[in-house]
User: Fold this.
Amino acid sequence: MHSFLELRQDLELQKLINVSAKLGRDPLQVQGPGGNTSIKRDGAMWIKASGTWLAEATERDIFVPVFAKAFAEAVRTRKPGAGNTRDFAAKVENAPPHHASIETCVHAVLDWPVVLHTHCVETIAVAVRKNAELLVSEALSDLEAVFIPYIKPGLDLAYSIIERTTPKTRVLVLGNHGLVATGNTVDGAEALLLEVSRRLSKLNEHENPPTLCAIPPEALGAGWMAAPSHKTQTVAFTEHLIEKLQANTLYPDHLIFLGPGCAIAEPGESVHQAAERASAGDASRKLVLVPGRGVAIPTDSTPAMLALANGFGEIITRIPKDAELTYLTKSQEDELINWDAEKLRQELNKKAETA
Ligand SMILES: [Zn+2]
Assistant:
């Protein structure tokens, strides 16, 4: 097997670190701790650690070593406990003491040496639509792209990828989730990822003028502030978007960091009252939309919550008026909220944010 240490010294890994930081700092590709990248050779893989931010890739060591071939084999043969990333962690001198990303099995089952996964807003704005599969096949037909309908990230997603891809597949558009681009080289995978974003952006709305009015202080009440993004504020002023948001969550990280969907204030209701009412008996909603006035989030929002609130505006305002959407079902929301690996990721993110 190729040595983990050799691969760590490889120029391609240095390139991956640079591209990871670039993608991580682009709010149209990655929001907060979302997204992950990896490089593998001869069964050895370095992959982003859970709870870390791609944006920090050049500032701190965020890649951890994993036995990718053994992991992929366990998943392919449906070995009991195949989804346990920790069992495939490699011990390498001076490697950071982090757990590998909860999406490691997805990277492991893709045979390409380089795998880049982002929560690209142009992609998600297409991937939440009922006709996403058709749109993807039309727009990306020559790029060996496959649409994977939403399924819980991690092991279930890896199984679905094995079923729906061939060794030729280079691009995955993940329903209600994001984008995966692969390649033999970091440059090739990055170019492919950007090309997919560019093509899918043509299917999206770019005409919504960002609003400049933020929600007035008297509508906010203690503990709430205007979401600091013009695009996010715009949602509250766009009738067809408010209508689309009456249902549940559109993609996992929104649920994980901001709660299910958003609370929509009724006439005369304060932000606090709307959040309380909408959250009763449920996970609490951290994003409150006051139609015609603006969008609020808690004043103690973490950097990850702010990044996701910003991404919400970027994604939602790109959805065309006539688009019909697929939402996560209540049981899909519940399985994410109660997922131990996801709880761990949030813990690690909190630690990283306060470190
Ligand atoms: Zn993801």
Observations:
- The chain has two domains: 2-201, 217-317+325-354.
- Residues 34, 103, 117, 119, 153, 177-178 surround zinc ion (CB under 6 Å).
- Residues 217-317+325-354 form one domain.
- The longest helix spans residues 186-201.
